Amino acid sequence: MAGKVIDTEELKRIQLQILDNVAQFCEERGIRYYLAYGTLLGAVRHKGYIPWDDDIDIHIPRPDYERFLKEYNKAESPYKVVSPESESSYRVPFAKVHYPKSIVREFHFKPDLFGVYIDIFPLDGVESQAQAKECGELRRLMHVKNSVFLKSMPLARKLRLAITKLILLPFSLKKLLKRIKFTATRCTYDNSDNVCSFMSRTAIREIMPRSVFDEYTMLPFEGKEYRAPKGYDRYLKANYGDYMQLPPEEKRISHHNSEARWKE
User: Fold this and answer.
1) Per-residue pLDDT tens listing for the chain (264 residues)
2) Which pTM does this prediction carry?
3) Sign (positive or negative) of CA dihedral 198, 201, 207, 211
4) CA-to-CA distance for 190 and 207, rounded, in angstroms?
């Protein structure tokens, strides 16, 4: 049974505690990590969360990512890392560090078994654009398999979703997860001129020189400082265009549809 709802401010407090713990763990062990996506944009533009956002993402290069997965849960910590490698029912191709005393329900997708979390995206070496296209398509198929039918969905969308789910029945989620990792890890990170976060559905636009991540700088985020890629300007332009320009007010909304609660 789930207990009391965790409000947005408390949710962010837990996420920041997880980020602190992960950053300290990585620093102590020489594991490379960087603020990513909206978290990096928030650090640069707002020195913290984007005001209408409520999640935290980081990148870890694949060799360090695999080490992180093996070592993190061995340390004394109230938080745990979960990934496709550790959980048979896991539904996404990247890791999460979560707080097991809480539970998150994401309304658009089938239920998972994690609490309030931060996302950990591996960075991989790039062999070709075709590699990114294949990973992006696999992520789209995974999204369909994980999606649930909502009462608010238009009938036409429900029909499209139902037909696609039927087509995908022969392909298990586990097979899709294995395929995306196999495709993403064809090329080693430290021997590649270009790198990418293949676990994103927008992987094709995220291919960029490894030099973007070869060095780091410290950026403020909610009163503390964390690692960011020294080439963050190129990274943010690739993902957000004119990233210092605020979006129109009608687009300043969270894209997450979820609820966090304490476990009873």
Assistant:
1) 468 999 999 999 999 999 999 999 999 999 999 999 999 999 999 999 999 999 999 999 999 999 999 999 999 999 999 998 888 778 888 999 999 999 998 765 555 678 999 999 999 999 999 999 998 888 888 777 777 666 677 878 778 777 877 877 777 888 888 999 999 999 999 999 999 999 877 788 899 999 999 999 999 999 999 999 999 999 999 999 999 999 998 888 877 778 899 987
2) 0.89
3) negative
4) 15
Q: Which residue has the tokens 């789209």?
A: 140
Contacts of 154 (CB under 8 A, 6+ apart): none
Beta-strand (E) ranges in the chain? 2-5, 34-35, 57-61, 80-82, 95-98, 102-106, 117-125, 194-196, 208-209, 216-221, 224-229, 258-263
What phi and psi, each to the nearest 5 degrees, are found at residue 28? -65, -25
Structural tokens at position 142: 């995974």
**Phi, psi for 186 (deg, rounded to 5):** -65, -30
> What does the buried/exposed string (b/e) look like for 229-264 if buried means 16 or more CB atoms within 10 Å of the residue's CB?
bbbbeebbeebbeebeeeeeeeeeeeeeeeebbbee
153: which DSSP letter?
S
Q: How far, in whole angstroms, is CA 212 from its chain's centroid? A: 19
* Side chain identity at residue 255, one-letter code: H
Task: State which amino acid sits at residue 257.
Answer: N
**What's the CA gap between 256 and 151, in Å, rounded?**
17
Q: Is 33 exposed, middle or buried (0-12, 13-18, 19+ CB in 10 A)?
A: buried
Q: Which tokens is 106 given?
A: 């994401």
